[in-house]
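Example: Ferritin.
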Amino acid sequence: MKKMLNDQIGMEGYASSYYLSMASWCDTMGYEGAASFFYAQSDEERQHMLKIVLHLNNIGAAVTIPAIKQPPKDYKSLEDMCKAALVNEQAVTVAFARMAEYAQKEGDYSTFAFLQWYVNEQVQEETVLETMLQKFDLVGRDKPALVEIDRIIGSMVTKSNKADAA
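Written out as structure tokens, the predicted fold is:
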């Protein structure tokens, strides 16, 4: 269980770097709304990583902070970037589900309870990205549509943060 949690620290760290890279790309491409969203996501992933570090510290387990591999820095389009973000979140969802299953099987109920927040959080993370991707089909992919989608994604920063606070 401790190894799985330490591995997850690396996964969350990578997600933070990945979203930071996405935010930077959006910033340079003029997608201000998406940049705001992905900067906020980067911060959120770092907080997720920190929660795991603190949990391991609280249970007296050794923490390993791994080196983080460099995320991609170029994307073909805003839509492709959002698809890549969803694929990353789906991988994180699988990792947390495996950890929760293992914790329950091993009778590690405090870690199982700890992981429930993440399991629920992943539902929200995937839903937000799926909603973003639906906008491309609903609004379109031409330049005026991309401006509107960028505005919509920017408005999701507040909604996503409010859901996290609940």
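The chain has five helices and no strands.
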